[in-house]
Structures are given as structure tokens and as C-alpha cells.
Specification:
Organism: Sphingomonas aerolata
Helix content: 40-55%
Order of helices and strands: EHEEHHHEHEHEHEEHEHEHEHEHEHHH
Distance between the termini: 26 Å
Pfam family, one: Glyco_transf_4
Protein name: Glycosyltransferase involved in cell wall biosynthesis
Structural class: alpha/beta
CATH architecture of the largest domain: 3-Layer(aba) Sandwich
CATH class of the largest domain: Alpha Beta
Number of strands: 13
Number of helices: 15
Number of domains: 2
GO molecular function, one term: glycosyltransferase activity
Strand content: 15-25%
Shape: globular
Keywords: Transferase
């Protein structure tokens, strides 16, 4: 598995990409696969780590200061080039690529080691052309939602691309049969995740709210969120999965406020597994993830989101839990990954036969 190296692959997770790599590696190991995790060297030592970089690059190049800088790009590129060379020489059966780097998807590399690439973001210029040129019999691409598939391939996706919904372990996100009447929000504290809008909507609805997650953008937090903290707006910290599941289960509704084309929305699925209906902005994959387990408002419509809160609270808590168990379990997710691995390995076998 080749991971993104902005953050370490360890709990508590910064975001969905780190969670994706960690839970997939754990799930594959539990099924008896021999997994080597190519990630930052400070990732979870329970896995066999081959370091792409000695430390996650946020520690060396803080994101807010070095976003898009030439030294950062060179630092990351050098790590991935070397990692790809080690993978090519390492005798691996298959690579699951979560890196968002252009190097692992070059056709000369995927012809050597069969590859499944998971795209976790909407299309962007630095990767778009490379993705479009990369499908082959030994390279499959997945996205996390139908809306993301249309974004990457508006004229129709190639046969090698498909939707692979993220999955969670329902046992790790225990169902709680009742909430305390409050709202909850979790995620990275950045403008495109919209916690400030969740606070505004909760206040309009007269509902207390607790926010959980890493404060990724301190300036945004200080200007837009921190001034509202008080008895009815609380910050609960950045928690690991077990503690977060316990905290989520105490609330009565989850607010999901993407302000960008969110490719999936793992935080919503986690809350749904705990029994929380969702009040959300209808942006990105929110409608696809939430379905009958919540109520949607127009993107950025705080008044509409406030109105969706009591409507969502009226949804029985077994509805969101059942939706997760039907569509978004880790077993279902890993089953599909194994099927994709088998496809690219069979294609490689045919090429050398």
C-alpha cells in the first residue's frame, strides 16, 4: 500500500485519506494478506512500514506556509520516486495506491506491478492528465462516489474506472439508541469543511453543538469558530476513533457541512453508524452517502440547514445504522478491493503467459 505522506498513517486521523489507508491495511492484514505500508516513517508501527519520507511532510513543511512551494514538491517527489523504485524491485503482487502522486500511475510502472489507484479528491490540474492517460489492463482506478466519477470523467468513465465507496467497521462505531438532543460535527477545521456554518445553523435551530477534529487552519479557527465557543458551542478536541465514536453516540444529529465537492464524507458514515441522522449541505457526495438517513439543504444555506436539523432528528436512529450496514461496511469495501487486485493480477499473468 502506497499512502499519502502529508500526515502520518496513525490515529487520531487528520482526515479521510489517513483513515482509509489505516483501516484498509488493518483489514487486509486481518484477512491474512502480507501488507507493507509505504508511508511516512512515523506512521503506526503495528504495520510493516517502508518509509516514503522519514516523517510526514507537515512536520517539515507546514501546509499553511508551504502550500504548493517548489521545495515541498521536490521533497515529496523524491520520496515517491525512490519508493516506486523499491516497489518495482520488491516482488509485490499488487500495489494499492492512495498517494495522489503521478509517479505510481505511470504506465511503465503499472505494467511491472499491477496497481489499483484510489482517487480521494476531485480532479485537479497536477494529476488530471496523468489519471486520464493511466488506465490499462494492469491498472484499475476507483473513486469514492458517483458524483466524483462524473467529475473526473464528465464524458464517460473508462472501463477500468469504477466507484468504490469507503467502508467502516460498524463494530468500531457502536450504535447508541438515544441522543441527548444536541448536535455534533467532526472533521478538519478548515473553511472548506464548514464548521463555522454548522455553528451558525445549530444556533439558529436552538441546539447545542460540539465540534471535534484537528485545527488545521489556526487563523480560520481563531477568526470564524473560536469566538463562538461557549455553553452551547463546545470544542471537544481531536479524538481517536474509540473516543470519537463514544462522543458521537451521545448526540442526536450530525451536521455535515461540505463547502467543496466532497468526494465521499467518511465522517457522516461514522456518525450514521452510531445512530445519528444527518443534516447536511447537498454538495459533492452528501446525497449519495446520507440518503434516507438525513435531510439536505442547499449548499451554504445556513437557514435551510437549521430547518433540516429538527427534520433529521425525527428520523429513527436505526435508519442511519441500517444504511451503513447495507452500503458502507469495511467487509464490503475490502471484498471489492480483493476483487480488483485479482483482476489486475490476472491481467498481468495473461501478459506474461
Amino acid at each position: 500500500m502506497l499512502s499519502h505522506v502529508r500526515q502520518r498513517i496513525a490515529q487520531p486521523f487528520m482526515g479521510g485519506m489517513e483513515s482509509h489507508s489505516w483501516y484498509l491495511a488493518e483489514g487486509l492484514q486481518a484477512r491474512g494478506h502480507d501488507v507493507v505500508l509505504f508511508a511516512s516513517g512515523d506512521s503506526d508501527p503495528r504495520f510493516a512500514i517502508d518509509p516514503v519520507l522519514p516523517q510526514h511532510y507537515e512536520r517539515v513543511f507546514p501546509w499553511a506556509e508551504h502550500r504548493g512551494s517548489a521545495p515541498l514538491i521536490a521533497h515529496v517527489d523524491q520520496g515517491y520516486i525512490a519508493a516506486c523504485e523499491r516497489i518495482a524491485a520488491g516482488g509485490f503482487d499488487v500495489v494499492h495506491n492512495n498517494s495522489l502522486s503521478r509517479f505510481p500511475i505511470e504506465p511503465q510502472r503499472t505494467a511491472i506491478v499491477p496497481t489499483v489507484t484510489s482517487l480521494h479528491v476531485p480532479p485537479y490540474d497536477a494529476l488530471h492528465w496523468f489519471v486520464k492517460a493511466s488506465p490499462s489492463p494492469t491498472h484499475r482506478l476507483t473513486v469514492t462516489s458517483q458524483s466524483q466519477l462524473r467529475a473526473w470523467w464528465p464524458d464517460g468513465a473508462p472501463a477500468e474506472a469504477s466507484v468504490l465507496h469507503n467502508g467502516i467497521d460498524p463494530a468500531a462505531w457502536r450504535f447508541s439508541p438515544a441522543g441527548d438532543g444536541s448536535a455534533v460535527w467532526s472533521g478538519r477545521m478548515t473553511p472548506n469543511k464548514g464548521p463555522h456554518l454548522a455553528v451558525q445553523a445549530a444556533r439558529r435551530a436552538g441546539v447545542a453543538i460540539t465540534l471535534y477534529g484537528q485545527i488545521e487552519d489556526p487563523d480560520y479557527w481563531a477568526a470564524e469558530v473560536a469566538p463562538h465557543l461557549g455553553p452551547d458551542v463546545r470544542y471537544g478536541g481531536h479524538l481517536d476513533g474509540t473516543a470519537l465514536a463514544s462522543a458521537l453516540g451521545q448526540a442526536s444529529v450530525f451536521l455535515f457541512t461540505p463547502c467543496w465537492d466532497e468526494p465521499f464524507g467518511l465522517v457522516a458514515a461514522e456518525a450514521m453508524a452510531c445512530g445519528l441522522p444527518v443534516a447536511a449541505f447537498d454538495m459533492g457526495a452528501a446525497r449519495e452517502v446520507v440518503g434516507e438517513a438525513g435531510c439536505l439543504a442547499a449548499p451554504g444555506d445556513v437557514a435551510g440547514l437549521a430547518a433540516a436539523i429538527p427534520a433529521a432528528m425525527a428520523i429513527p436512529r436505526d435508519v442511519p445504522r441500517a444504511r451503513v450496514e447495507r452500503l458502507f461496511t469495511r467487509d464490503r469495501w475490502v471484498d471489492r478491493c480483493e476483487a480488483l487486485y485479482a483482476e489486475v493480477c490476472a491481467a498481468k499473468a495473461e501478459m506474461v503467459a
